[in-house]
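Write out the bound-state structure for iron/sulfur cluster.
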Amino acid sequence: MSEPLNLKDYATASLRERFAKAGIKPFRADQVAQWLYVRGVEDPLEMTDLDKALREKLSLEWKTSALSLSDLQRSVDGTLKGALMAEDGAMIEAVIIPEGDRRTLCISSQVGCALACSFCATGEMGFTRNLSTAEIVDQFLHMQREMPEGEEISNIVFMGMGEPLLNLPNVIEAVRIFLDQKTFAIASKRITVSTSGVLSKIPVLLEAVPVNLALSLHATTDKVRDVLVPLNKKFPLAAVMLELKNNPMITKRRPVFFEYTLLEGVNDSPEDARRLVGLLRKLPAKLNVIPMNPHPGSTYRKPAEDVIGRFMKVLAKGNFPITLRKSRGSDIDAACGQLAARNRVDALINLQ
Ligand code: SAH
Ligand code: SF4
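---
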């Protein structure tokens, strides 16, 4: 018998099509989505408004679970980090950061990452595999269950492990599930997909789903960016910036969220800041500056406070909103020694 399909791999529209092909009435897909995502029922045998034959068919031929929660840590500042295990034993992490009335979920799109950015802990792991749509959606479901009573995830950021644009079909389908008005109903302006600059896939993503795009810039010259983000050799700075400038989905209402990890002596000079202002002036932009979180095995360091201050002062001359990120949830990451997750947390707060 072939491996059972996972019901969570399909947005409702796709599941309707799948069901039709299998001789199941398409509207059953809507009922299944309600059970899975609104009522939190995973076992098809418990989906009582489906007839018995269908319940048994789904239970035999389909599966619903993809991940199990293997560890959960709560920071003193309220940040919640989950370690989740896939069926093949692969481990990924998801984080929830509360801030004001926002509860931002940071999710992973791959196990590891192939792009090897020189300052990133995930990059050091190398690439294992893409996550399925069900594995992306399950991160939300598991983490939501751990939230305090009455609190709900309000924002989603694809800034966990991996490069989402290199797992685009599964990421797009997961976004469609999150956007579904009848289930998760997360507003499109509250979903952000972050990329290190996979230029060829940017239009594909933005044409498929109306999400915010975050671009991990980190440098203002090809010389420096080639070292920090090796993908820059394939998709250089000017080409990426031109695509963003010309993409019709990027507007004042939906600007690009640039991320700039500040690394001591590498990209933190006033000259860097001036070039950054020059680059971002040309398109609708917001900027998130993230002082580097050092991790074992990395020689990069966070600049001194006065250097950061000087850098931010030059940036203030730009015509775009800027945020400087402070570390969150560092106590739990330090405790478990998994800095890959801490990097993500620092990068995403206040991004939206
Ligand atoms: N692959 C995607 C999304 C995941 S990484 C991307 O690169 O955009 C998300 C962010 O993590 C990166 O933009 C970077 O800003 C941040 N990051 C990685 N390593 C970091 C570190 N050591 N310190 C601070 N931020 C880091
Ligand atoms: Fe991959 Fe993003 Fe880390 Fe680069 S920064 S190695 S693209 S996860």
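---
Residues 334-352 have pLDDT under 50 and may be disordered.
The chain has two domains: 5-63, 67-351.
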